[in-house]
Design a protein that fits this description.
Blueprint: H1 16-33, H2 46-51, H3 62-70, H4 79-92, H5 96-122, H6 125-137, H7 141-146, H8 151-172, H9 176-190, H10 199-208, H11 223-232, H12 234-252, H13 263-282, H14 299-318, H15 324-337, H16 359-375, H17 382-403, H18 410-420, H19 425-437, H20 441-454, H21 459-472, H22 475-488, H23 493-505, H24 511-528, H25 533-545, H26 549-565, H27 569-583
Length: about 600
């Protein structure tokens, strides 16, 4: 292949049509996703992230900001995410509307930004508009927009696109000051979701096309230019590496429980999963918040999938001179999906629609440029292509509108899962927990017991049944279920705390039960690093059950201070009442 000479990146003049199209795409996205603002909270992560999180649902304050920057919550360090939720609380109150509204607005803004960036980089108006509109209207966006917890996607996507825009300005006129904006947006994005570790390789792809900051990377004479570009991204690479290490630490030392999938099995899951995601993007049918696990490797399928990925890559490498956009789009898809691909990502080796938020841009880019490059040389085909593009976008919008009602509340979300996978234990568990939360113990017990029939020993189902039994006053069964949780999860804070409380509060408890209660409470306090007021409260109750009233009073005083500082007024009142009993030398039982 002949050597290509790098040219300056295209600097398209800001014109009214670009602004009009950007605003139009954003307005259509808002109109399309507006029904999401009528959805409620989901009893699936929304509690720990928002409506049961006292730091979030009390809004912005010095104490809450300090918590955002100093705490690892749900095994992630995401201070910008928490601050965004706190700001929503302050602006709109603690109801679900404001959180949903901001998700919708951020997604619409991301679509407009994507169009603005692509049209400036490539100089192609309609291809860029199609990619941005397909990104905005695709049905796989519903999970990222309609699920409050997935603010992570739309917020990190916003900072990702701001980083791309800053990098474009840096490419047009390089300077340390302009590059510092790239690093700043990347840092803010990483503090919203760790997926922004993909930014450095994506920027290298854009250096090849459309920015053309270096020539053919397969030409050895261009390696010096590529080395310079790679070295220039050193700060971004170091930032990405730092967050990889940080997240490995918070997950491996935190309380997260993951399936023990052997490394060889995980490796075999990777390659077919790429095709699963591509298939969902091309044909978004049977969408749900959860998909059943199938962590069984068929190496024939895995090797065939690897061969397919390699074949497409080799083909596009050969076409790179005439059609560089195709290679860039394909590699964007592969690179951006890599951190969340089944078999590699932290946590369960699961598939999820939300993981396609940024990777899908690459595949849409490939599709738009491939169709246009192959068919546009014939001008008479332009009306046909325009009609085809509008029909595709209309079909996507129709699917979005049909999918949004499934996200109205927890019941609709998990009934949709069970409609597609009736024997999925996790869906039965989550639906049982929801019924318990709305005081419908009958359906709750049916789903939780069905979960345990399908997967005996499922710790979350035992925990939910234990909580249900405790709420109904069936304390012996509650104890049995809490013990079942601790058999598989000896460091479960909820099980340790609640079992300790039950053993301490049981009238006529034996000395061994009271001693066990104290051991459990001390372990829970150790795991929480004495940061949780309710766990300190339980420890005080356990001390009092063992007639160590001095220790009980001191611990209750600390629990009271923490509850008051966190705005937990109901808990603070209960602790204060028990503290008075401890000072009188009484257990303070409920």
């Amino acid at each position: 292949m002949n050597r290509t000479t790098p040219s300056a990146p295209p600097k398209a003049r800001a014109t009214p049509w670009r602004l009009i199209l950007a605003l139009g795409i954003a307005a259509l996205a808002i109109a399309l996703f507006w029904p999401a603002t009528e959805c409620g909270f989901l009893h699936f992560d929304d509690g720990s992230y928002v409506f049961e999180n006292p730091h979030v649902n009390t809004g912005l304050s010095a104490a809450n900001l300090r918590w955002a920057f100093t705490s690892v919550h749900e095994n992630w360090w995401l201070p910008v995410l928490w601050i965004s939720f706190m700001a929503d609380t302050g602006l709109f109150g603690p109801g679900p509307f404001g959180y949903h509204l901001v998700n919708v607005l951020l997604h619409a803004l991301n679509a407009a930004l994507l169009f603005w960036i692509l049209s400036r980089m490539t100089g192609s108006r309609w291809r860029s508009a199609f990619v941005a509109a397909l990104f905005a209207f695709h049905p796989l966006r519903v999970e990222s927009v309609a699920w409050i917890t997935e603010r992570k996607d739309v917020l990190s996507g916003f900072f990702f696109l701001l980083a791309l825009l800053a990098y474009l300005r840096h490419a047009e006129r390089p300077s340390p000051a302009r590059f510092s904006w790239v690093a700043l947006w990347m840092l803010l994005g990483l503090m919203s979701k760790a997926i922004l570790i993909i930014l450095p390789p994506v920027l290298l792809l854009l250096d090849f096309w459309p920015l053309r900051r270096a020539g053919d990377p397969f030409d050895r004479r261009e390696w010096r230019n590529w080395g310079r570009l790679l070295l220039g991204k050193g700060p971004l690479i170091l930032l990405a590496a730092a967050f990889v290490l940080l997240n490995l630490r918070t997950h491996l030392t935190g309380s997260a429980i993951y399936e023990a999938v052997p490394p060889a099995v995980r490796a075999g899951l990777v390659f077919p999963n790429y095709w699963s995601y591509a298939g969902k993007l091309l044909w978004p049918a049977h969408l749900a918040i959860l998909y059943p696990e199938h962590d069984v490797v068929d190496w024939t399928v895995s090797l065939a999938a690897l061969a397919g990925l390699a074949a497409v890559t080799v083909l596009l490498v050969r076409l790179r001179a005439k059609h560089p956009a195709l290679l860039v789009g394909w590699l964007w898809f592969l690179v951006a999906l890599f951190p969340v691909i089944r078999g590699l990502r932290l946590g369960y080796a699961a598939y999820a629609d939300r993981f396609t938020y940024l990777p899908s841009i690459g595949l849409f880019l490939l599709f738009a440029w491939a169709v246009a490059d192959l068919l546009l040389p014939e001008p008479r085909r332009i009306p046909f292509l325009a009609a085809l593009a509008l029909a595709l976008l209309a079909a996507c919008a129709g699917k979005v509108r049909a999918t949004l009602p499934l996200w109205k509340n927890t019941l609709t979300v998990f009934e949709n899962v069970l409609a597609q996978a009736p024997d999925y234990p996790l869906a039965h568990n989550n639906l049982g927990a929801y019924y318990a939360s709305i005081n419908r113990p009958g359906p709750a017990r049916v789903h939780l017991q069905r979960c345990l029939q399908l997967q005996p020993g499922f710790a979350d189902a035992h925990l939910n049944l234990a909580n249900l039994c405790m709420a109904e006053g069936n304390l012996p069964d509650a104890v049995l279920h809490y013990r079942a949780v601790l058999e598989s999860r000896p460091d479960s804070l909820k099980a340790l705390n609640n079992l300790s409380w039950l053993l301490a509060e049981t009238p006529g408890a034996s000395p061994s039960q009271r001693e066990e209660s104290l051991r459990l409470a001390l372990r829970a306090t150790e795991l929480s690093k004495s940061a949780d007021a309710s766990i300190l409260d339980t420890l005080a109750v356990a001390y009092a059950a063992n007639r160590r009233f001095g220790d009980a009073a001191r611990t209750a005083e600390e629990a009271l201070q923490r509850a008051q500082a966190n705005g937990e007024s109901s808990l603070a009142a209960s602790v204060a009442k028990r503290l008075a009993a401890y000072r009188r030398g009484e257990p303070g039982r409920e």
